[in-house]
Amino acid sequence: MTETSERRPIAARRWRASSAAAAFLARRGVSANAISLAGMGFAIAAGLLLALTSWMPQIAWLCWLLAAIGIQARLIANMLDGMVALATGTASRIGELFNEIPDRVSDSAVLIGLGYAAGGDAVLGAVAALVAVLTAYVRSVGKGAGIAQQFCGPMAKPHRMFVVTLVALVGVVDPGQTLLMAHAGITLVVAAEVVVILGGLITAVRRLRRIAAAL
Question: What are the pLDDT digits (tens) for 67-91?
Answer without folding.
Answer: 999 999 999 999 998 888 887 776 6
